[in-house]
Design brief:
Blueprint (H helix, E strand, L loop, with lengths): L39 E2 L5 E3 L2 E2 H8 L3 E5 H16 L6 E6 L6 H9 L3 E4 L2 H9 L7 E3 L6 H10 L3 E4 L2 H14 L3 E8 L3 E4 L1 E3 L10 E2 L4 H11 L3 E8 L2 E4 L3 H21 L5 E3 L17 H19 L5 E4 L3 H4 L3 E14 L5 E7 L8 H5 L6 E2 L8 E7 L8 E9 L7 E5 L20 E5 L2 E6 L4 H5 L16
Helix pairs in contact: 2-9, 5-6, 8-9
């Protein structure tokens, strides 16, 4: 619960930073697990990604900019594919969750690395189509798909549609009848399990907009409807329990409940559902306190959980799937900003908070303001011998809550014109970016082997005003009449 009605940024906060944040011996040093695989500091302190100095990247492409490490992205994608190919006698499909970050270039990389793709709107589906992604390897999520979106998905031959409600079942049935096509369907269920970070809770977590409740019987009713509908092919069930998850305990409880429903379907309908999707939500390291699992460990643990539960219920192990998004793209991207001001503010008791303002903010990373998300950062254009100072990195928006990094130790001689880089911004930063205060969305620049390539260009003023209809030509003031 937030402590202040105007938002957490107005509440009393310690000026000493969180208890887990330690003053570094060297404020120039990187913590490797927070950064992409090719990121390093050159001898002069300049940050390098994919063999490209961020100072050179900013000179060419401007600031702020998202910097995408192509080699790291591809490596994480292939690591998931290889890890989930390893368990014997079990078939896993890995669906990249496009909502984390999606553009046509990334969709092609995902295809080339042998992963499937999860989309959740018609817009994301169009990106996949434009990229030439194989539609049979696309899954279509969403809690309120329109008739038009369902029609397009069926026309394109999307591999599976994850239905989320009885209304959607009715719409999809009508669409398949009208088009004379069959849609392959997973039913999204709520298992009463919620998991985030290191914790999970296994009761009373069905108060959400997604899925159909197992405990209320809605899930089973939906399965019966899909099974009976002539234009729908029942593939199985889908369960998603949370995000930024570091432990498998929540998956174990959810799998037990979902596979109990598999058993019930077998006993009532005489059908062993062929597929089970356990969702995504695998965590990454945003700060030094985070300790995520690697794909090999996840594959081993999730395979064991499902195999043990199926054995206890006399079920064949279904075809399994997961949906990593953040875990692939999150660490593969950082955001580079230019410092505009450094302001030391005296607080009660003689304490001082140093505010470092950069040329972006909540329009390119809303997660700190929206979720109290924690990030790290580093001086990116030089090294410094100055002692560390506890700093708060803020944006340029007209909002007190416009904070990029709540607390970080930065060199005490930080000045206007310096560059800062924030790691772990690949997931849900560009995807949730906005034009708040009429700022322009930054570009996404891919770096690999010493070269850069723009995969999403920077917005222009013309882009910003393209949907502005302009003043009424018949009204001198431009006011509506």
């Amino acid at each position: 619960m937030r402590a202040h009605e105007a938002g957490w940024a107005h509440a009393a906060v310690s000026v000493r930073g969180p208890t887990w944040l330690r003053e570094p011996e060297d404020a120039n040093a990187l913590v490797p697990r927070l950064w992409s695989g090719t990121t390093r500091k050159r001898t002069d302190g300049t940050l390098e990604v994919g063999g490209v100095a961020v100072t050179e990247l900013v000179r060419e492409h401007g600031s702020p900019a998202y910097v995408l490490d192509e080699e790291d992205f591809r490596g994480r994608a292939s690591a998931f594919r290889e890890a989930f190919e390893a368990p014997p006698d079990v078939h896993w499909d890995v669906f990249y969750a496009g909502k984390a970050f999606l553009c046509t270039t990334v969709a092609r990389w995902i295809d080339e690395e042998g992963l499937s793709l999860d989309v959740c709107t018609g817009g994301e589906l169009t990106v996949a189509e434009r990229a030439g992604f194989p539609m049979e390897r696309v899954g279509f999520h969403g809690n309120n798909k329109s008739v038009g979106e369902l029609e397009r998905a069926v026309e394109l031959g999307v591999g599976r549609i994850i239905v989320d409600s009885f209304h959607e079942l009715d719409r999809l049935s009508r669409v398949t009848r009208q088009l004379g096509r069959t849609a392959r369907v997973l039913v999204r269920v709520t298992a009463g399990v919620e998991a985030h970070t290191h914790e999970y809770i296994a009761t009373a977590h069905e108060d959400q907009k997604f899925g159909l409740s197992i405990s209320s019987g809605d899930a089973l009713d939906a399965i019966r409807q899909v099974h009976a509908a002539p234009g729908l092919e029942l593939l199985g069930l889908h369960s998603h329990i949370g995000s930024q998850i570091f432990e498998s305990a929540g998956f174990e409880v959810a799998a037990r409940r979902v596979l109990a429903l598999h058993e019930q379907v077998r006993d009532e309908l005489g059908v062993e559902l062929p597929e089970l999707d356990l969702g995504g939500g695998f965590g990454i390291a945003y700060t030094t306190k985070d300790d995520p699992s690697d794909p090999a460990r996840l594959a081993e643990e999730l395979t064991r959980i499902v195999a043990d539960e199926c054995a206890s219920r006399g079920l064949a192990v279904p075809r399994l799937s997961i949906e990593p998004g953040r875990a692939i793209v999150g660490p593969a991207m950082c955001t580079v900003y230019e410092v505009g001001t450094v302001k030391a503010v005296e607080l009660d008791g003689g304490a001082v908070r140093t505010y470092v303002s950069v040329d972006g903010g909540m329009s390119d990373n809303i997660r700190t303001a929206l979720y109290d998300a924690e990030y790290s950062c580093t001086l990116a254009n030089r090294s410094s011998d100055a002692p560390p100072m506890l700093s708060r990195v803020v944006g340029k928006h007209c909002e007190a809550g416009d904070i990029v990094v709540m607390d970080e130790f930065l060199p005490g001689d930080l000045a206007a014109g310096d560059l800062l880089a924030v790691p772990g911004t690949g997931a849900y930063c560009w995807s949730m970016a906005s034009n708040y205060n009429h700022l322009l969305r930054p570009p996404v620049v891919a770096a690999r082997e010493g070269r850069t390539r723009v995969v999403v260009r920077r917005e222009t003023i013309e882009d910003l005003l393209a949907t502005d209809a302009g003043p009424d030509p018949d009204s001198g003031s431009g006011a509506a009449r």
